[in-house]
Every structure is written in C-alpha cells, then in structure tokens.
Recover the amino acids of this structure.
C-alpha cells in the first residue's frame, strides 16, 4: 500500500485530531475564563486520538503521503505510548502547583503539538519527514521547558536545551545531507537498497551515520550528548520533565530503530538482522550503551536533588535501552519496546511522586523526603519505593521484566561483556535509588516538615501506575505479546 | 493434598494482605494474624514430613502450570529430600520468630506484613523448580529484609541494611546472566531445572566453568564464604532478634542449597573440577577463620555471627567431599545449624532485652540470677560446640568422616577448629554465667514463658536429632545420593 496525499488523509485521523485539538485549545483560550477547561479539552483530544490509533491498529501496513510516513505496528505502538504519556502529563499538569500560574492555552496547545511531532517521528520513513518531526518535538520542548518565565532555573534550562539541541540538530541535518549526497534519496528503504548495492566510500558513509547518530543520540540522551538532561529536567516544570523523560526519549528510540534497522540493515528470514553498510553500527552502539549506563549511574550517585537524580538515572536507562538496539534481532527490538512501556510506568510514577511532594513542601531535594512515610505520605512513599525498585530492576516489578528481556536478548547474542556491565550497573543504581527509599522510611522526620497529602486527582494516577507496576511484573504476557506484534516494520 | 506447596507459600501472603487491611494501631490483632498465617505452613510441613516418600529421590508434591507460555516460563514447584529439610526449617523458624518479634512496638503493621512476605519468599526459593521462579523468589526476599533491618534494626541499621542489599543483589544479578545463558543453551529454550539437569552433559566446558564461578559468587555471598562474608556481622548485629534468626537460620542455607541444586545438578562437570578449591579449601578456611574471628569478639551477637561463618564452613567442606556420608552430613549440618543458631540468636535477644547491651565482659555470675536462662544457653552452647548427643555433633562428624576420605589435610585443619570453637564458647560461658556476680544485673528478670516457648521446640529438636539423626537422614538420603551420582562420573 502506497497512498498519495489525498488518499492518505483518512489514515492520519489521529494526527489530524491532535492538530485540531491544538488549534481548538488556542482559540478557546481567548473565550473561556476558567482555564482548567483547556487542560480537560486537550486531555479529551489526546484521548480521542489515542482511541483512533488503537482502532486503526490492526489495519494494513503501508506508506502514506507518497512514502513520507509509514503506518505499521511499530508506529502504532509508539503512538499509543506517546498518547498515554501526553495524557499522563496533562493529568499531572492539572494537579500541579507549578503550572497553575502560566498561560494555560499555549501550554496545553504546545504539549499537544509536541505529541503530534512524536507521532510523526515514530512513523517517519523519509529523512526530511524525520527531521521535520524531530524539530517539531524539539521546538515545542524548548518552550515548554522554559514555560515558567520568571523562574531562573527554567530560563537557564530552556536556553541550554535550545543551544545544545540546535547544535545536535545542525550536525544531524549535515549528516543527512551527506547520506542524500551518497545515495541520492531520502527514503529510508531506498537508502537501504542503495547502501546494499552501491559502491559508497565506507569512511564517508561512516561519518554521515555518525553525524546522524548525534542528533538521535541527543534525543535519547545518550552519552556524550547527555549534558542537557540534568539541567533541563531540573528546570522544567515536573509534568514536562516527566513527559520529556518518557515520551521524548521514546520518540528518539523510535526514529533510531527505524532508521538503523530497516534503513541500514537487512532482515533474514529467521528474524535476525545484519548490517549492510560495512559500517558496524552495533559495535558503535555497544560502546555507546556501556558508556551511557555507566556514566549516568555514576553521576546519579552524588545527586541531592531528586529531579536531577532522575535525570541522570534516565541517562542510565537510555544506556539499558541501547542494549536492545545493538542486538540486531527482533528480540532486541521487542525488548526495547517492552522496556519503553515499563519505563513509562515507573518513571512517570517517580516524577508524579516528586510532584506530589513538591506540591506539599515546595522541595525537590532528597532532604525534603525525610521520614515521608511517617508524616502522612505513606502512600506516595510506598509508591515511590515501588517505582524506584522497579527502575533498579527488582522483581516482582515491571522494571525487572523489562531488564530481563533486554539481558535475554543480549545473552542470546552472546554479548556477555555487555550483559555483565549491565547487571553491575543495576547494582550501582540500587545504591542511589535505595538512598531515596532510606530517606523516606529509615530516617525519621525532625518535626518541622510539611505534611504530605495526596488529592484524589493525583492519587488516581498514582494508584493506577503503582498497580500497573506490580501487576505487569507478575503477569506481563499481554504486554510482551503486544511488544512482539509491534516489533515489526513495514518495509514494502 | 493438592497444591500443598502453593498453600505453604501463599498463606503468609494472605496473612500479609489481611494485616494490611487492619488499622495500624491494632497491635494485638496484627500480631495474632501474623501468627495465624504461619501456622498452616507449619502444619502442612508436618504433613509433608509424614507423607514424604523417603525412597523416591525425585521431586514430589509437584505443581506444574504455564505462566508466561511465550517464554516457556512456568510455575513449577516440587520438593525432594534436599528441599524438604529446608522447607521444614523455614516453616518452623518463621512460626517461632513471630513470637520472638512479639515485643516489637514501632511500626507493628509494617513489620509483620514484611515478615510474612519474607516468609513466603523463603519458602518459594526452596520449592521452586523453574529457574525464573526461583530467581523471583530469591529477589523478593531482599526487599523485606532491607526494610526489616533498616527500620527495626540497631543504631547502624542503615549501613547494615544497604550493605546486605548491595552484596546480595550483586550475587543475584550474576545469577541472572547464568540463568539466561542456561536458558538459551537448550532447544527448546527452558527454565525448567529438571530439564536443565537432565541436559547437563550438553554445555561446553569453558562455558560451564564461567557459569559455575558466577553462580558460586552469588551463592557464596549468601553462605557467606570468605571473602564475601563481610556483610554478615554487620547485618546480624544490627538486625532485630527475629531477623537475625531468619538470616542465620534460613537465608544462609540458601547459598548452600543453591550450590547443591544448581551447581551440582546442572553443572556437575565443572563442580567436580572446581569443588576442591572453591568449596573444600574455602570451607576449611571458613571454619578456622570464623572461629578465630569469633574468639576475638566482645559483642555476644557478633560472636554468634562469626560462629555461623565457621559452622557454614562444614557445610561447604562436606559438599566438596562427594561422598555419600559427607553430603548427608553437609545437609544435616544445614538443618542443625539452622536450629542451633536460631537458639543462640534468640538467647542473645533475651539478654539484650533485659540488659540493653551485649558486651560479654559486662556480665558475670548470671547463673545465679537467671538459672533457667543459663540452662538453656548452656544447652545451645554445647550443641554449637559439637557435644556428642546433641544434633550438631552428628552432622559435623559426618562431614569430617566424609571429607577425610578425599582431603585428609583440609579435614585435619577443619577438625582442629573444633578446639577453637569449644574454646570461645566455653570462655564466653565462663565470663557471662560463672564467676563473681555483677551486682548491676542482680535484678535481671528470668526468661519468660513466651521466650521459652520460642526456644523449647528448637531445644527438643537439637536433643532428638542428637540421639536419633536417622529421622532427618532418612528423609534426605535418596535425593542427596542422586545429586551426588550426577557428579561422580566426572570425578
């Protein structure tokens, strides 16, 4: 299936819904006085879009808009993930003190627009489309990060994000132009064919890939393109930090997988892939993965601010996910998809607890969590413990299953060194996660800390994520089945 | 009886759920619920003991269900002679430790809920026959343990808790890689331990050795074998009494259990080659080193903790002998050490509750103040130092007899430590109970009924097994023989 522009329109209803939602929210901002309606409106719009994605999930795979974007199970999986992440971020924004004061219309419209960009990133089948989608996500993210205009940290974060992002995206488009120059096409599949058949200069191709990887590495926060992460997560409003850590990273991985798998490898009948370009990109990814997880974990050890800690931990998790990327098999892709879903639950959950505590105490420092369990915050403290231990990878929580599949994929390919580095990193990560747990349970309040209350609004999401973290840790067959079905690209 | 083993695992979980529904101020109902939840496993354990077919070396009371079919992960339980001894120990000590925890006042609800979760996980480790399931139970145990030491422990509890957690996690993640490597080595891929055992000849030798060492590190941390033992004194000293009992009585056994079940059963070739160095020599070293360290302690609890390290050395030495008598002795020693050391830690708890310190030299002449306590302590000490007629004597002798046939020098070294053990225990007795009465403690109340209730069953077992060890040996012999037979061809 390869549809022209007009014929494609019925197949992009979810995207169109998001466009409409963003516009409606912006216009409604002028009309309504009770601004939280805008958030509800955006929530409904994204939810409808998610339903449309789900409704069309089983449809035939194919190219839309003359091979600009692709509809396949892989894209559907990520779109659902982005929609769910946007819903969670909107939900959190509605219950956040930080977001109360800002201009609501733009805020919600930008969040919806960022989601749209992510949808397109997951579905892009063309370098140009990929770049445009990536920039849509980036630009909206810059603004959202600095949305609290009078907050100095926010401004600093947005500026850093913008500058680093600009450089990364410049390098990326430079690399893409090399690829175009070499192969004469911007279409992923034709690039693949050209690389497979052509007599391209290896070094040129290598440099082109390296440059492209820069932009994508930046999005997924892989070392050495990770410098922006701690500052941006610390400066951004918590719902946005949560959204970026989950959705933006996932979008980066979606594009990474689609570009490097169908674009630069060939698929054998038994489900294993082989790189075709003469450029051993899995080895590149292997080094990237090990360095990323190790550096992220080591840097997290000394953090005192919980948002910063989660920022470094999210760098480490990018490293874990890269383990699945380098494996060159469908099992590896499936493991990344599963991990994404697990990461959604546990990382959003962790940020939600940070927000609940920040709402009550105004503090994001670990010190502010002293004796949390003993001053009314037993529910968020227990939930936080679940999320953090899940991030560590302890059973019976969903994070363990995620790591299990990643390690399984790595061990199956006999990359034992990577597996050992991965598990050692889990041990290191336990130390700083447990430090938070210790502060919440093992330290006792000194007396002057604010009591923590969880409202119904935030509580609902908190319970939902906590239950999901446990249930999917004990019975995850449906989720792995979904990841399995989704780990397939449409390649024409 | 259907699903007997599942009931043993999940009644404590049900108890935990019930406790979580109770209001946190209802201390008495919480404690009684916890006690009630540990009774069914104990009764089922007795039933198991009676109905276990002693002639059958294979797995009995098997439960087998699909769990995650796409990855061949199964809910697969069963017991053989090796696990049944550990299951009985777990059921008994969990029940007794609830009563040993009766004095807990802080965070009662959390304590008993976590305790029951720990109980369930321990039970699960000993009966799981699917490697994945085994791993889950193994890891689940860490969480409650971390909190139980970290919240209800002594002054340096946080340090001890995180040290315990990090050490054991390091061991278990290495196990994870081994588990995956074994899984992928088979077609069709499987975590089924019985199938992995049946396929033991198919693993490449180099891989076997690598996997064996990784597993050994994981299990040695639990045993704990030198040089992976340093978490143990810290954890023991800081943990509340009941948790020390569980740690020494059950958790340490998991290391030895894992080696016998997985290293011996699945990687027999590597076991045959490596046992001398990793189990024999290290075991003998453990015996002497633990005893010497124990001798140097002034804190009673630390002394008992180091004596545990020493006594677990016998288990390693016995396993390494590959003789029927040595392995029988090793597993019997696992059981006996569980009961004896549980007594010792309970007794330390009794005196600590009264005097609020554990300095051996701080006491003196306690025999006159607390005659009953002194009597029970004397029994436990004599059992620990291996007095004939008490249970530990039998197992230590079996171990030494078995090991002598293979490694006379190591055995001589290990046996010489018996003198050290007798030395530090008798010296401790003398300093605490005999000699001039320390007037400061002239008014210490005698051991009470509840405390005696926790000690009496253990004391009875120590005496009965000292006189009639056959009761346990019959239970284990057939299965241990079959485990030993797996290794024999490679020796």
């Amino acid at each position: 299936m390869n549809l022209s522009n007009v014929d494609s329109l019925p197949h992009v209803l979810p995207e169109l819904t998001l466009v409409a939602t963003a516009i409606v929210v912006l216009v409604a901002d002028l009309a309504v006085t009770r601004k939280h309606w805008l958030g509800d409106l955006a929530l409904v719009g994204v939810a409808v879009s998610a339903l449309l994605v789900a409704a069309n999930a089983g449809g035939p795979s194919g190219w839309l808009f003359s091979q600009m974007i692709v509809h396949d199970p892989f894209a559907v999986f990520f779109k659902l993930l982005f929609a769910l992440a946007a819903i969670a971020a909107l939900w959190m924004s509605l219950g956040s003190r930080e977001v109360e004061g800002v201009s609501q219309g733009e805020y919600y419209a930008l969040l919806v627009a960022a989601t749209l960009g992510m949808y397109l990133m997951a579905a892009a089948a063309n370098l140009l489309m990929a770049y445009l989608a990536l920039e849509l996500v980036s630009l909206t993210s810059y603004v959202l990060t600095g949305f609290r205009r009078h907050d100095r940290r926010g401004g600093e974060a947005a500026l850093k994000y913008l500058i680093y992002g600009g450089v990364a995206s410049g390098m990326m488009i430079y690399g893409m132009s090399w690829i175009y120059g070499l192969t004469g096409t911007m279409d992923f599949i034709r690039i693949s064919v050209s690389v497979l058949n052509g007599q391209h200069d290896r070094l040129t191709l290598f440099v082109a890939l390296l440059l492209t990887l820069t932009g994508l590495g930046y999005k997924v926060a892989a070392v050495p393109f990770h410098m922006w992460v701690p500052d941006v997560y610390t400066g951004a409003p918590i719902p946005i930090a949560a959204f970026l850590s989950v959705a933006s990273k996932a979008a980066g991985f979606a594009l990474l997988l689609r570009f490097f798998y169908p674009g630069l490898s060939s698929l054998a009948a038994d489900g294993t892939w082989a790189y075709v370009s003469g450029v051993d990109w899995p080895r590149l990814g292997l080094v990237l993965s090990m360095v990323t997880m190790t550096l992220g974990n080591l840097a997290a050890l000394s953090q005192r601010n919980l948002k910063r800690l989660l920022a470094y931990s999210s760098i480490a998790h990018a490293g874990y996910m890269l383990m699945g990327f380098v494996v060159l098999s469908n099992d590896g892709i499936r493991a990344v998809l599963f991990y994404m879903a697990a990461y959604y639950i546990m990382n959003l959950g962790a940020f939600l607890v940070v927000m609940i505590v920040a709402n009550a105490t105004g503090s994001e420092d670990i010190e502010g969590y002293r004796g949390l369990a003993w001053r009314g915050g037993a529910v968020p403290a227990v939930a936080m413990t679940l999320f953090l231990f899940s991030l560590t990878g302890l059973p019976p929580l969903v994070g363990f299953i995620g790591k299990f599949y990643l390690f399984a994929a790595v061990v199956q390919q006999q990359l034992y060194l990577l597996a050992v580095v991965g598990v050692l990193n889990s041990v290191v990560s336990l130390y700083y996660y447990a430090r938070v747990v210790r502060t919440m349970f093992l330290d006792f309040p000194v007396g002057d800390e604010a009591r923590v209350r969880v409202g119904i609004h935030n509580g609902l999401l908190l319970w939902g994520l906590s239950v999901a973290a446990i249930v999917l840790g004990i019975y995850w067959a449906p989720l792995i089945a979904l990841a399995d079905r989704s780990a397939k690209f449409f390649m024409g | 009886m259907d699903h007997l083993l599942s009931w043993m695992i999940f009644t404590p979980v049900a108890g935990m759920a019930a406790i979580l529904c109770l209001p946190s101020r209802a201390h008495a109902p919480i404690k009684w619920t916890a006690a009630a939840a540990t009774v069914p496993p104990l009764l089922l354990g007795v039933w198991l003991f009676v109905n276990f077919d002693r002639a059958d070396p294979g797995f009995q009371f098997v439960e087998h269900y699909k769990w995650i079919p796409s990855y061949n992960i199964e809910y697969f339980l069963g017991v053989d002679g090796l696990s049944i001894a550990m299951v009985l120990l777990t059921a008994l000590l969990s029940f007794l430790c609830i009563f040993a925890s009766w004095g807990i006042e802080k965070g009662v609800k959390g304590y008993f809920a976590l305790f029951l979760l720990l109980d369930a996980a321990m039970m699960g480790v000993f009966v799981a026959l699917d490697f994945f399931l085994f791993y889950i139970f193994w890891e689940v145990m860490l969480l409650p343990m971390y909190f139980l030491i970290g919240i209800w422990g002594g002054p340096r509890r946080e340090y001890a808790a995180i040290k315990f957690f990090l050490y054991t996690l390091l061991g278990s993640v290495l196990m994870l890689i081994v588990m995956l490597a074994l899984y992928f080595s088979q077609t069709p891929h499987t975590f089924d331990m019985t199938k992995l055992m049946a396929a033991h000849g198919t693993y490449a030798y180099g891989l076997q050795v690598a996997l064996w060492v990784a597993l050994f590190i994981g299990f040695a941390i639990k045993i704990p074998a030198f040089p992976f033992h340093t978490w143990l004194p810290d954890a023991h000293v800081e943990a509340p009494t009941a948790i020390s009992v569980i740690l020494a009585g059950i958790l340490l056994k998991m290391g030895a259990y894992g080696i016998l079940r997985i290293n011996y059963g699945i990687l027999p070739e590597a076991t045959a080659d490596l046992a001398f160095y990793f189990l024999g020599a290290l075991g003998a070293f453990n015996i002497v080193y633990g005893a010497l360290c124990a001798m140097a302690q002034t804190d009673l609890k630390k002394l008992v903790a180091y004596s545990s390290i020493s006594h677990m050395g016998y288990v390693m030495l016995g396993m390494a002998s590959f003789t029927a008598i040595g392995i029988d002795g090793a597993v019997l020693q696992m059981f006996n050490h569980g009961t004896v050391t549980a007594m010792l830690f309970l007794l330390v708890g009794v005196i600590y509750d009264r005097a609020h310190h554990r300095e051996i030299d701080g006491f003196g002449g306690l025999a006159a103040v607390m005659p009953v306590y002194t009597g029970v302590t004397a029994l436990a000490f004599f059992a620990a130092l291996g007095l004939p007629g008490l249970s530990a004597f039998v197992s230590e002798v079996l171990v030494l007899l078995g090991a002598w046939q293979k490694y006379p020098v190591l055995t001589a070294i290990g046996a010489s430590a018996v003198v050290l053990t007798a030395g530090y225990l008798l010296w401790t007795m003398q300093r605490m109970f005999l000699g001039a009465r320390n007037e400061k403690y002239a008014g210490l109340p005698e051991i009470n009924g509840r405390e005696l209730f926790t000690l009496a069953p253990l004391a009875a077992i120590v005496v009965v097994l000292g006189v009639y060890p056959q009761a346990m040996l019959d239970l284990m012999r057939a299965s241990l023989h079959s485990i030993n037979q797996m290794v024999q061809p490679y020796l």
Notes: The two ends of chain A are 8 Å apart (CA to CA). The CA atoms of residues 54 and 80 of chain A lie 7 Å apart.
